[in-house]
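ESCALATION

Customer reports they have been waiting on this structure for their group meeting. Please prioritize. Original submission:
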Amino acid sequence: MIDTPNINTPDKVEPTRGERLLKLATWVLESFGPLLAFWIALRIAGLLTAIWVSIIVGVALVVREIVRDRKISPFTAFIATSVAVFGVLDLHYQSGFFIKIEPALGNAATGVFFIGSVFWGRPVIIELAERSAGKTLPHARRYLTGWTVVWGVFFFVRAAAFVWMAFNLSLEKAILVRGFAGPISFAPLFAGEMLLRKVLFRKSAAQSAAK
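Update from on-call: job pushed to the front of the queue and completed.
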């Protein structure tokens, strides 16, 4: 029988719309808080302030998780560390080429983190999905582990593309292409995941009906 992603099993008590929005906002803040703080502060107050703001937000989230859960989420720790490290490197290597190559380094590091999380036995996609759902997802572990590997490979492909741009495009063109193509590159992966989940659910339902 196919190990289908049983992610959307309804709870006994349906949360209100406000509770769902609050839960989503909390998940986004906990998962991407340092990164969001960095980009907002960068646009408002410059690089140095952005680095310090992201570090403060990262430390605050880590402390919050220690107090609440008595442990630190690997993904939160990775995001907080990577934002701080690359921010400091930006200050040290204030050159156009480093600005072009930095996305490649960041995506390569993220790919290593995603693939490594599978070998460590704690696939990051499972962590994110369970945090979003607010419960464990034992029936979806195999499915989500596979997608963790796919995302890791995806980040390596992005890193290779950014390396090519760093050596073949001017800084202005690289920033333009990165700003346009970077976000769009995620769309096929999201669409593919939703399509695959739909197909697997249909197969699972058909097999259950045939019994």
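Sent to customer with the following note: The chain has eight helices and no strands.
Escalation resolved.
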